[in-house]
Amino acid sequence: MLSLLRRITQEVTAAQSLQAALDIIVRRVRRAMRSEVCSIYLVDPNSQDYILMATRGLNADAAGKLSLKANEGLVSLVGRRAEPVNLEDAHIHPSFHYLSGTGEERYRSFLGVPIIHHRQVLGVLVVQHEERRRFDEGEEAFLITLSAQLAGVIAHAEATGAMMSLTPNTSPAGADFRYKGIAGSSGVAIGKAVVVFPPADLDAIPDRTPEDINFEIKEFYQALASVRRDIKKVSSRLSQHISSDEKALFDVYLKILDDNSLAGEVETKIKEGNWAPGALRQVIKLHISFFEQMEDPYLRERASDIRDLGRRILSHLQEQTPKMADNLTEPAILVSEELTASMLGEVPLDKIKGLVSVMGSSSSHVAILARAMGIPTVMGAVDLPYAKLDKVDMIVDGYSGQIFTYPSDAIIDSYQQIVDEERQLESEYEQLKDLPCETLDGQRIGLYVNTGLLADVNRSLDRGAEGVGLYRTEVPFMIRDRFPTEAEQEQIYRQQLEGFAPAPVTIRTLDVGGDKALPYFPINEENPFLGWRGIRVTLDHLEIFMAQIRAMIKASSGLHNLKIMLPMISNVAEVEEAQALIRRAYAEVKEEGYDVVMPKVGVMIEVPAAVYQVKELAGMVDFMSVGSNDLTQYLLAVDRNNSRVAGLYHTFHPAVLRALSDIVRQAKGEGIKLSVCGELAGDPLGAILIMAMGYDTLSMSSTSLPRVKAVLRKLSMEQAQNMLHQVMPLAHADAVKQTLMKLVREAGVERLIRPSKTATLH
């Protein structure tokens, strides 16, 4: 049974279209279960009707033409209940609805199971028999297992655009197709989508209509010739060191490349209207599927050879393809299956209107960068047909996490009003730049910035930052192909310290591991977030830690505005060891004649263990800063970059709020400063609660700072504390946020949090 499931899944995965995949499913399931009928109904994303998409046993001409309303028939009953329906005689069930034109009137027994992906019912898989009989438990279990396996495949087919064919009579222009994701960075973007993808990744290549078919064919054959030359060079270079049998492996590659069928198929796909990389993807994946289905183990292994050759050809194609930035003649919305920081780095900031990523969450690093740069962003848009959206008109709503494709004039006009209101708000924020963040009843709270780039200095000062609450030192480490020297680090840190002097600059020691990797210092672990990261790495590598601390202290010479912060602290011993090393580095720098003072040292509270040791840690350090992103992740056991569970990542989760409040309670009377430097601090609603709890400083992206200041200056501390008291007893994160929005609306500051027009659109 397991072997059968695997074979069906492999065939479906390799199918060239959604319809081909569905036809494979109904054919193979009907045969495997010896049933007289197998059919698949898929939910139309627009009408929510159940469309008969594929069948074996019913009238084949009905496929794609007949449908059931969302509330009629046994199929919709399966979908509504989201569980199997197994009937000995379907005709006597009150929900039975005869679908005219299918020829199903003679079939009595019925078994339907839902196809579910991420809690969403995508469709229903049905088997039927003429005779009255109840399908046994084994048959039901097989169908449930198969539908669970196939859900991801069908969801991916939808995400790559196949489901748009369910409504062939709908004109795309003005259709207002709406997709839901996760709000990553507030704001609205209106423009054309440009699909971006990582290098040499066949699976991520989108379909794209070529401007010049002959040019695409020429580029493909040039790439093919380049790969052939590469393999011959490698084979020749290694010929003296390998046996004739091993050399034959390279001959296999060359034979595949010389086989005219593969090249001819790619050329045909290009002529049919796909650009060279997209055509290559189609053909290579088809050939991989052929080999993977073979019984012979040796031949089955050839699938990996085909995959490798496909990547090599694609790599050469992408070398010949102009860089994405060169192709962008006007600002666009970048769309990708998984946006990365390196992708953003390839495009000038003035060419980016908005960002959409199928993978990731609001606390992914791309979302954090987007907030720092003020780019409207939606993450975790798992149902978006991203591969079919190149050059398509799009609206990105970073307030609600919604995306509109083929928007109508009416929806464009509505969102243009929001864009206009945003510009007006920005001019209002500008007037607050030099004013302190002070509540209506005179309570002051410091507003600092999180930085990582030199460009952040002027941008932060222009927006009224009072200092740096978090300087991420991993950024200069990531942009190199080796560890930066002590002298290079000193120069980098000096620019930050001078730029903000005399205001304090909190520099965090190297925080790599987890989802932050250095290309020259790989950390491969099964569970990286619970592994070797942050302070654990640097204390294990004193040569890295000491060079960094010495560089920081030297950079502060004559400025005396340095504060050092230690990340990922989970026990007192780590702080003791780090402080001893910092004192040693200070003494060494002092002996070298630098004009320095011993910097203040603090710790990040981002691990649950640290929450319960606040009192002990407070007696050892000068300040504490809560990293709300990681603290939320660890408290809720949610990988913030995993789109499968991104919906469970709630910064307003009652457990997170209670942990933040408990930190203040434990630190009370210890005489140390408390701040929050996670993304919660840059959310005006979060800032209200944090201030009310008693934190001294909020640190956030420079783009968030004006909005937070505008909101806090319009409230009294008493109002903020009243809001805190009302939400702390609540048991649901959504209830917390909804209650806060009601309270800020009553306080008259909702417009400063999001433009008023957005409330009517959502």
UniProtKB/TrEMBL annotation:
Keyword Transferase carried by entry: yes
Which GO molecular function annotation, any one, does this entry have? kinase activity
EC number of the protein: 2.7.3.9
- Which Gene3D superfamilies does this entry report, sorted A to Z? 3.30.450.40, Phosphoenolpyruvate-binding domains (3.20.20.60), Phosphohistidine domain (3.50.30.10), PtsI, HPr-binding domain (1.10.274.10)
Q: What's one GO-annotated cellular component? A: cytoplasm
Q: Which UniProt keywords apply?
A: Cytoplasm, Kinase, Magnesium, Metal-binding, Phosphotransferase system, Pyruvate, Sugar transport, Transferase, Transport
Q: Name the GO terms of the biological process aspect.
A: phosphoenolpyruvate-dependent sugar phosphotransferase system
The chemistry this enzyme catalyses reads: L-histidyl-[protein] + phosphoenolpyruvate = N(pros)-phospho-L-histidyl-[protein] + pyruvate
Cofactor(s) for this UniProt protein? Mg(2+)
Q: Which InterPro entries match?
A: GAF, GAF-like_dom_sf, PEP-util_enz_mobile_dom, PEP-utilizing_PTS_enzyme, PEP_util_C, PEP_util_CS, Phosphohistidine_dom_sf, PTS_EI-like
> Pfam family of this protein, just one?
PEP-utilizers
In this protein, which residues make up the domain named GAF? 17-164
Where is it located?
Cytoplasm
| SMART domains found in the cross-reference section | GAF
Question: Which residue stretches, if any, does this entry annotate as coiled coil?
Answer: none
Similarity comment: family membership: Belongs to the PEP-utilizing enzyme family.
Which PANTHER family did the record assign? PHOSPHOENOLPYRUVATE-DEPENDENT PHOSPHOTRANSFERASE SYSTEM, PHOSPHOENOLPYRUVATE-PROTEIN PHOSPHOTRANSFERASE
- Protein name, entry field: phosphoenolpyruvate--protein phosphotransferase
